[in-house]
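Sample 1 of the test manifest.
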Amino acid sequence: MIVGDLGRGEFDKRLAGPGLRVRFGPFNIRIGSPLDAFAGVAHQLYAPYPLVEENALIDFHVRIASPRGLRRWVRRQACFSLDGQSPFAPYTIEHAFPAVEWGINWCIATRAHHLLMLHSAVVERDGLAMLFPASPGDGKSTLCTALVHSGWRLLSDEFGLIRPEDGLLLPLPRLIPLKNESIEVIRRFRPEALIGPAFYNTRKGTVAHVRPPVDSVQRAAETARPRWFVFPRWIAHSPLDLQPMSKSQAFLMVASNAFNYEVLDETAYRLVAQMVAQSDCYSLCYSDLDEALAALDELSRSSRDE
Amino acid sequence: MGNCQPDREAFVLAEAARSLIWQAWDEVYIIYQASSAETHVFNETTALILRSLEQGPLLAEGTRNRVEAALGLDPGELVEEDFAFALARLEELGLIDRLDPVSPVDDRR
C-alpha cells in the first residue's frame, strides 16, 4: 500500500493522530502533523511512497506542529521535532513542508551511522551507480533531476548510502529540493517533471521539491555498485569540461564530503578506498544541461564497453 | 640534539606505524593510522622513509640513501629540507621515533 492509496481525509487523520508511517529507502519514518500547510503538499508529493506495516519498527518519529504559547496565535509558526525534542528554531508555518524535509535529512545524517553517508547525489543505470559528491551551489540537484528524467534511476539527491558489509549503495529516493533559479531551469528542461509549490524566503532561498519518477521509488530496494565519481560544478556560460581526476584527489574529496567519515574510522577509510579504486573519477564543469547529460551518457556507455 | 649532526641521528619505526593501512595511487599514498584514527596523505619521500625503517632502525643518512635509491636519485640529490620535513612530520604523527644517541645503530644494513 502506498501513500497515494489514502484519501485526503484518511491521510490527514493519520497525520493528526497516530502518525503517517512511510518508508523512504531503508528508513521507516512516522510523521505527525495537525497542520494543513504540511498535509496538503505531503499528500501530493509523498503519494508514490510505501506505507509501513503496523508491526514494523520505526527509525525516526518526527512531527511538525505549532509551538505552544502565545506565538501559536500571534505569528503562526511550525516547530520540527524528533522524539519530542525540537533541535531547530521554529519556522514560519508556510515553511512547514520544507522544514520536515530538512528535518528528516538531519535525522539521517546525524544518526544512521550503520552506513557510510556521503554528501552526494547518486543515479544508476544497469546496476552501476554514478555519484556526484558536491557542495551546496555546485549544481548537484539540478543535474541529478535532469538525469533522473532522462533515463537514469534516482538513488538519492543528497545521500550516498554505502552498506559496509558489501560496499553497495542503498537507494534513498526522496524528494529533490531545487533552489532558486534551478526551479525554472528544470521546469523548462523537463516540463513533465512533477514539482511541488515554491516556498519563498526560506533559510535557503526559494525552494521547490521535485517528486522522483515513480520507477525510482518502486525500486528503492535495488542496490547499485559504485562505478563513477563525477564532481560537478555549474558555472554560468562555462563550456562543458569533463576531465579525468586522479584517484588520490578523488579519495580526499569523497572522504571530506562524507557526513560520518570520522565516526566510522577505519571502516570509512576502507569503503572510500574501495569505491574510488573501482570507479572512474572525473571533474565536470557545465552550464548547459543537454551537453552535460550527453557527456555523462557517453561516459557510461564507453565505460561499459571496456 | 646539542652538537647536531642530523645525518648521524637515528630513527626507528614506532609501534603505531606497524598497523598502517596503505593505499597507493600514482605517487600519492593515502594512509590510515589506526592509533589516531587519522587518514594521512604522504608523498613518495615520506612513504619511502616508513618503508625503509620497516626492517629496523637506521641512521638518517642511511635512510636518506635508501630513499634516494628508491626514487632513482643520485646520492645527495634529495632536497635536504624535504627530507627533514618528512622526518619531522612522521615523528610528529608518532609514526617514527628518534633514538637515543647512545643507542647502537647498525647503518651497514
